[in-house]
Write a structure and sequence with these properties.
Layout (H helix, E strand, L loop, with lengths): L8 H17 L11 H8 L3 H14 L2 E4 L3 E4 L4 H25 L2 H19 L3 H18 L3 H20 L4 H19 L3 H25 L11
Helix pairs in contact: 1-3, 4-6, 4-7, 4-9, 5-6, 5-8, 6-7, 8-9
């Protein structure tokens, strides 16, 4: 991991935001948790100025809420928020896939294949954080291949709010296996330039994620720590 002391001052808050974002996504900082400036400054070994700038960035993304007289807390989503937001991201991802299948280059397809193989290796190790980072890059690459800046900006805004939930949708082993199979199919549909097929698969993929999150929410297991397999 990059030493924060080696990062130029003007870029420091961005690196701090990256680290805080990762902790929120992976559940180290749970929804509703207060972001204690002193504790985080000491843990990250940075002053409070870049930390505050980082928190503002995460608030703009919807990962953090700034509350009057209470400071910053990790954002929480209600059940209806989950349903509504996944509905929107499913449509955006479906559109991304449809356009990407028509516009993707061979070089972009090769990059997605390479990321996919790395993701499969992370899955075989049951390394969920590494798997999720690679998974996220694949979805971002598909979105980029759509070549629609308005779509990309909208997708990034909505997706930022769902990253923690998308990560946790893989806590169930069966759901994780299904996600991997669906990613296999995504790559093949992209290679076949099957626009309608990829759109349909991506919409279904995101709605399955929604259902997995709601199942965990209803069972009270949404923010449990995943147990490593022996």
């Amino acid at each position: 991991m990059t030493n924060l002391n080696s990062i130029p001052r003007q870029a420091l808050h961005q690196e701090v935001a990256t680290r805080l974002r990762q902790r929120i996504i992976e559940g180290e900082l749970a929804p509703g948790a207060k972001l204690n400036e002193r504790e985080l400054s000491e843990r990250l070994q940075v002053s409070r100025t870049p930390l505050r700038e980082a928190v503002k960035m995460l608030a703009a993304e919807g990962l953090v809420e700034l509350l009057p007289n209470r400071g910053a807390v990790v954002a929480q989503m209600s059940e209806q928020d989950v349903i509504d937001t996944f509905e929107v991201i499913a449509g955006l991802e479906g559109m991304s896939g449809e356009l990407a299948a028509k516009r993707i280059t061979e070089e972009e397809l090769a990059e997605i294949r390479a990321l996919h193989f790395e993701m499969l290796a992370a899955h075989s190790r049951r390394d969920l954080p590494a798997y999720y980072r690679l998974n996220s890059r694949i979805h971002a690459q598909i979105n980029a291949a759509a070549r629609n800046p308005v779509l990309t900006q909208t997708w990034q805004t909505v997706n930022a709010r769902l990253q923690s939930l998308r990560f946790r949708s893989n806590l169930d082993e069966g759901k994780w296996q299904q996600a991997v199979r669906e990613h296999d199919a995504m790559v093949e549909l992209l290679a076949a330039r099957d626009a309608s097929g990829l759109r349909e698969l991506l919409v279904s993929h995101l709605l399955v994620k929604r259902d997995a999150v709601l199942e965990l929410l209803h069972s009270g297991r949404l923010y449990e720590t995943r147990k490593e397999e022996s």
